[in-house]
Amino acid sequence: DGGITQSPKYLFRKEGQNVTLSCEQNLNHDAMYWYRQDPGQGLRLIYYSQIVNDFQKGDIAEGYSVSREKKESFPLTVTSAQKNPTAFYLCASSPQPQGTPYEQYFGPGTRLTVT
Amino acid sequence: AQTVTQSQPEMSVQEAETVTLSCTYDTSESDYYLFWYKQPPSRQMILVIRQEAYKQQNATENRFSVNFQKAAKSFSLKISDSQLGDAAMYFCAYRRGSTGNQFYFGTGTSLTVIP
Asked: Reduced to 3 states, what is the DSSP secondary structure of residue A28?
């Protein structure tokens, strides 16, 4: 089945440590995205990538980094510079605008807790 | 920049009744797509319905339908015959047309279904 996988579902880290969240898709989508969701809030865009080896900052990129070495993979690193990293992280993908269907597909999310 | 506004943080509906969730958006584009996503307690984002701006006919998917008013920039979701499984956060989202890879989300409406 085609879809997006995120692992792990729950992740715990000590403050000051970098942590990498995994996101893999087998939908052959060009674009991939990372969102952060805090309790009772909407989705805030961290980074997105339209093609391999290219990515753009979203609204809240500070303290995060990404890479896009393969079309299928878009890992997100939460660095120690991120002041409040505890949150729910969602990865998504979509085809190019001229492709159909044109909506975003989402992974199941990773809940990161930093103490 | 595009903005998406959901003015109802919380809504409730009696089981089997009908409820309408509101969404307005701001854009200067004429070509775009609109979506409603559902996020149940599992936190998996699920596409409910999509609407192409160039289509005058309102989209419907079983018990879900939209009222798309392009001139008013309004995109409301109507849920008929509400079921307990409809209880979730609902997010309205916008995507620009032919060149748009970014999605813009509202802050969500939490829907409670009362048995």
From this structure: coil
